Amino acid sequence: MCSLEKRGRLFILKLTGDGEHRLNPTLLDSIRSAINQIRSYQSSSNSVLITTADGKFFSNGYDLALSKSDPSLSVLMDAKLRSLIADLISLPMPTIAAVTGHASAAGCILAMSHDYVLMRRDRGFLYMSELDIELIVPAWFMAVIRMKIGSPAARRDVMLTAAKVTAVKGLEMGIVDSVHGSAAETVEAAVKLGEEIITRGADGHVYGKMRETLVREVLLYTIGLDENGSSGVRISGSKL
Amino acid sequence: MCTLEKRGDLFFLTLTGEDEHRFHPDTIDSVLSLLEQAKSESTKGSVLITTGHGKFFSNGFDLAWAQSAGSGAIERMHQMVKSFKPVIAALLDLPMPTIAALNGHAAASGLIFALSHDYVFMRKDRGVLYMSEVDIGLPVPDYMSALVVAKVGTSIARRELLLSGKKLRGEEAVALGIVDSAAQDSAEGVVEVSVSLGESLAAKKWSGEVYASIRKSLYPELCRMLNLTANNLATHNV
């Protein structure tokens, strides 16, 4: 399902196995509990999270076969992913997605919900597939898209042509931060970046708060905020 | 005035005649009803291409018609501004990809009309984009500024478009990210690339309803102003 490794001050969360890493309730719970584990570590005021995956897929999105068999499960998966993304956004440390394979729809949203997106050049694409498979895109997905893709033309290309965005194209469009030769090199680069960030020594709690304000609109859609900008559901134990 | 023609999957909305294609209550009504017709006749794989004849795509509202009413000029301007809003809404709501093939100049509401399409192609050699309001001394209606903000990404580009009074030629418009391309040296060339894009989009056989929903969800502020819903549970999760 997913594994969590601690390497010095780095946390590496990996979606394990050769499958499509479809975001079904079980995997979402598994990822969430890994994040909870990360939060519980003492030294997490100066850490970095790297999220990556085994195999051909980063994540191919929601488990659509599951939601076909039981429509209430699509509501459940959506709710769990919303919570997970809100959790990632309030995480008191920088986050890096080392995209080592295809990231589609909800899987693409998961990747883009990280502060940095590093991707392999030789394989895989970012793909908001909804137009191709006739799925309505939830409003909160669009909030992530608007926060992470700056150019209106790029947003149009991603959402209204269902573009299969390779790493190099993603770099051009400003979605991907850097491109690397292979899956292993991408993870290596993520580790290197993570270590550089840690060396800068910024306080993770301050970082997390700043990120929340930067992507506030996404939080509005995922967990709801009141006018004071504080959420009713406080996920992180803030030091401030 | 304007015509709607269907050739295979492609709808062609053409502003006919060699005049400035100014928007006047009658033209606004015509365009609106043709868009409604395209919507009702749409199928999977439909695409709209909008173009014009002559030197102008559209030079904006019919100010002469407004001024001819003397003291009633302001009332007539308000009328045109108000009745034009549903045209923009209809384009954003249209269940098919839309392409503006600019044969010539697009100014003020004519430019807004162009930018309301998903893709905008203009000529390299001729034709300018011109938000004339700052020069004429007219305020820009809120839904028009909202459209510029939605479609034009950088503050520099928005300033050049709305505040500078500049007449932007193709190359500059592309550099500012306002149009998709300005590579053709003729009106026919612009239509040709539009048709080419149109055919490749048509071949996807997308559901128009899903397409329109995703398009609207790209521009939530603008859609709120135009009373359009994206039908994607666009309420905050409180």
UniProtKB/TrEMBL annotation, chain A:
Substrates-to-products reaction catalysed: a (3E)-enoyl-CoA = a 4-saturated (2E)-enoyl-CoA; a (3Z)-enoyl-CoA = a 4-saturated (2E)-enoyl-CoA
EC number(s) reported in the record: 5.3.3.8
UniProt GO molecular function: delta(3)-delta(2)-enoyl-CoA isomerase activity
GO annotation, biological process: fatty acid catabolic process
Pathway in which this enzyme or protein is active: Lipid metabolism; fatty acid beta-oxidation
Gene3D superfamilies: 2-enoyl-CoA Hydratase, Chain A, domain 1 (3.90.226.10)
Keyword Lipid metabolism on entry: yes
CDD domains referenced in this protein's UniProt entry, alphabetically: crotonase-like
Family indicated by similarity: Belongs to the enoyl-CoA hydratase/isomerase family.
Protein name in the entry: Delta(3)-Delta(2)-enoyl-CoA isomerase
Automatic annotation (TrEMBL), chain B:
UniProt KW Ribosomal protein keyword: no
Reaction(s) catalysed (UniProt annotation): a (3E)-enoyl-CoA = a 4-saturated (2E)-enoyl-CoA; a (3Z)-enoyl-CoA = a 4-saturated (2E)-enoyl-CoA
Keywords tagged on the record: Fatty acid metabolism, Isomerase, Lipid metabolism
Taxonomy, superkingdom: Eukaryota
EC numbers: 5.3.3.8
Pfam families: ECH_1
Keyword Lipid metabolism (UniProt): yes
GO BP: any one term: fatty acid catabolic process
Main EC class the enzyme belongs to: isomerase
Cross-referenced InterPro entries: ClpP/crotonase-like_dom_sf, Enoyl-CoA_hydra/iso
This protein's pathway: Lipid metabolism; fatty acid beta-oxidation
Family the UniProt entry places it in: Belongs to the enoyl-CoA hydratase/isomerase family.
Name of this protein: Delta(3)-Delta(2)-enoyl-CoA isomerase
